[in-house]
Amino acid sequence: MAARTPWSLSGALKGMFQRPTIDETTWEDLEDALIGADFGPDVTESIVTGLHASVDRYRTTDPRDLQRMLREEVEERLSKFDTTLKLSERPAVVLVVGVNGVGKTTTIGKFAKFLRNYDRTVVVGAADTFRAAAVEQLATWAERAGAQIVRPQQQGQDPASVAFQTIEYAKRTGTEIVIIDTAGRLQTKGGLMDELSKIRRVVEKQAPIAEVLLVLDATTGQNGLSQAQAFIEHAGVTGLVLTKLDGSAKGGFVLAVQEKTGIPIKLVGQGEGIGDLTGFTPHVFAQNLVGN
Predict the structure, then answer these.
(1) Interatomic CA distance for residues 204 and 252, integer angstroms
(2) What is the mean pLDDT of the chain?
(3) Strand pairing partners for 178?
(4) What interhelical angle do 189-206 and 159-173 show, nearest 10?
């Protein structure tokens, strides 16, 4: 039996845009496809209403015009946010936060590799000291990425002191970029946010924080966003990293999450390999999502 091709937005739209004319069915199918791609009801309604107005204004009945308008609309909305990573400080300190299970540790390894590809020197601080396995996993990824790692000196060491030692190491060795892993879960949410605040205070005494990146699993969509709300409210998040964005089945979440949080997406992960994390380019993403 042939393998079933996974659903994708561009695939769903392709048939729609190859029809001879725009009719009522086109609009219904477009709405269904956008909801299916996890744009969410509010963003979907807003996009469809805007496209309706554009189609009326230009008096077109050609579905290819509608496809072009949709692509331009998605790109324009995505481009309202500055997706550039701000890493000009030396050392540039990046805190990585997120709920356990979203792929935070692997994302840090991939991010270190991404930076090493640009010949930046990188040290990773294993400040998620509540999970011994996290430290070992992080060490494996750091090694694969060609980055250094600062580990806790004993199990359960204060995370802020690991962060402190990591920046100390970067300053002593002239390492350009520091990535600090943080806990995704403690017994209480309040405790977790207090812990993050403490890490921030300790770090900021030594060096400014360049970025606070929140890792989200694209496959969990809106649920993942509500789980991460505490980080958005209390951790001073400056950018989002979306993992597991394979294909465009959940591609609409990229737009929905930026519009809901007001926080730009800075990196996207589209596979399991160490080289599968890339910077986020709205133009390319809109083209892949909607099709040419």
Answers:
(1) 36
(2) 86
(3) 93, 123
(4) 20
Phi first, then psi: give them for residue 48, nearest 5 degrees.
-65, -40
pLDDT digits (tens, 9 = 90+) for 128-179: 877 778 888 999 999 999 999 999 988 778 899 999 999 999 999 999 999 9
Q: Determine contact, residues 195/156, Cβ cutoff 8 Å.
A: no
Longest CA pairwise span in the chain (Å)? 70
E-assigned strand segments in 28-116: 92-97
Whole-number Å distance between alpha carbons of 212 and 200 = 10
| Tally of CA atoms within 13 A in the half-sphere of 126 that contains its CB | 27
User: In the sheet where 177-181 sits, what is the strand order?
Assistant: 148-150, 122-126, 177-181, 92-97, 209-217, 239-243, 265-269, 277-279
Stated length of the chain: 292
Pairing of strands 92-97, 122-126: unpaired
Quote the tokens at residue 189. 């949410």
- Tell me the pTM: 0.86
CA distances from 107 to 2, 95, 202, 265 (A): 33, 12, 24, 14
Structure tokens at 265: 């997406």
Distance from C-alpha of 35 to C-alpha of 250, rounded to nearest angstrom: 10
- Which residues share a beta bridge with 217? 243
260 Cβ contact partners less than 8 Å away, ≥ 6 residues apart: 40, 225
3-state secondary structure of 147: coil
Choose among 72, 39, 42: nearest CA to 253: 39
DSSP summary character for residue 19? S
Comparing 26-30, 177-181, 235-239, 253-257, which segment has the lowest mean pLDDT? Answer: 253-257
C-alpha distances in Å from residue 230, one per residue of 82, 113, 227, 255: 23, 28, 7, 20
